[in-house]
Write a structure and sequence with these properties.
- The protein is an alpha/beta fold.
- The strands form 5 sheets. Strands 6-7-8-9-10-14-13-12-11 form a 9-stranded mixed beta sheet. A 3-stranded parallel beta sheet has the order 1-5-4. Strands 17-18-19 form a 3-stranded mixed beta sheet, with helices on one face.
- Strand 9 and strand 10 form a beta hairpin.
- It starts with a helix and ends in a 16-residue tail after the last strand.
Length: 327
């Protein structure tokens, strides 16, 4: 689908010119755009995404959410990242109007009327839930990193229709969605995309209409069928402690209601166990002994971290993901 600069100016309300660079790249004769991986599991990598793949992904999302030329969408994220780029492409393929708001911790500051789709990252959730214009959000798309159990509860209580996304830069944004509002733990693949697993138990994405065709991920999943799965955690993060495999993300979900500061579980070398789990917290004031007692009452002895390490500030990627480092 070809589009002119004049038509894009009609579709996209970008008062600060934040999307100008991407729009210029999209209108160029080059068949791809340049993007970067998140850097949460290593250094960010530059990759080329075919515009045709991005259009197919955008059309699938628009069909799922019922976005068409009568819709209005809001982008409170940077167009520099894949989530922002794909919102622009969704406007292009659907003819919907896209309003771009400078990224902040409190999105949807204005009464824009009914918004068919609003993507955010978890760091923006509290600000959005306190917005007086929250009822205007028809579909909330949350991605970037997992939500805590407490955050998901607050989303359900708010009454907004919210979805957790699963995807990556290489797949042109999400390939699966999970209904947070219904309390579901199951991700459903978008139409035309199916799921399988490899010998590691990691998700394999089959997308025959896309140029990459098939993509093996490093995400361990519980495969329900070819279109549904539960996400367990990253294969890179598995801790082999005395022959017992610990999944940090599972442990984190179990203690998310106990630890009220940013935290993560990671492994470190152990002479006795080979590896052992430790808990890092972003705080210098938490009572570590009292916190450990609460954790022990929640977790089994194998999953309980051997130590709580408090640091003033975590390292994060540009998109806000915590880097799981042994500090």
């Amino acid at each position: 689908m070809d589009i002119t600069a004049a038509r894009l100016a009609q579709l996209i309300d970008d008062p600060d010119g934040a999307a100008a660079r991407f729009i210029d790249e999209w209108l160029s004769a080059t068949p791809y755009v340049t993007a970067h991986t998140s850097g949460s599991t290593g250094d960010p990598k530059e990759i080329h995404l075919l515009k045709d793949d991005m259009k197919k992904s955008a059309m699938a999302t628009c069909r799922f959410f019922g976005i068409d030329s009568s819709s209005v969408m809001l982008l409170p994220l940077s167009p520099s990242y894949i989530a922002g780029k794909m919102m622009i492409v969704r406007a292009i393929v659907s003819g919907a109007r896209l309003l771009i708001e400078p990224p902040s911790s409190s999105p949807v500051k204005t009464d824009y009327g009914m918004l068919g789709l609003v993507p955010i990252v978890p760091a923006q959730l509290d600000g959005l839930l306190s917005s007086q214009f929250l009822p205007n959000v028809r579909n909330l798309l949350i991605g970037g990193s997992p939500l805590s159990a407490d955050a998901e509860t607050r989303v359900r209580q708010s009454g907004v229709k919210a979805w957790a996304s699963y995807g990556m830069t290489e797949t042109c944004s999400h390939v699966a969605l999970r209904d947070i509002t219904l309390g579901s733990e199951v991700y459903t693949m978008l139409p035309g995309i199916s799921a399988a697993t490899d010998p590691r138990g990691c998700l394999v994405i089959n997308a025959p209409e896309f140029s990459f065709r098939q993509l093996a991920t490093n995400d361990i999943v519980e495969l329900i069928d070819s279109h549904h799965f539960r996400w367990i955690g990253r294969h890179d993060n598995v801790i082999n402690s005395g022959g017992i495999k610990l999944h940090p993300e599972l442990i984190e979900r179990r203690i998310s209601g106990i630890v009220n500061v940013p935290f993560y579980i990671t492994g470190r070398p152990s002479e006795k166990w080979g590896e052992e789990a430790v808990l890092y917290i972003e705080s210098t004031t938490v009572d570590k002994e009292a916190l450990m007692q609460r954790i022990r009452s929640t977790l089994d002895k194998y999953s309980t971290p051997k130590e709580i390490i408090a640091v003033p500030e975590f390292q994060r990627t540009d998109s806000g993901k915590i880097k799981r480092l042994i500090l």
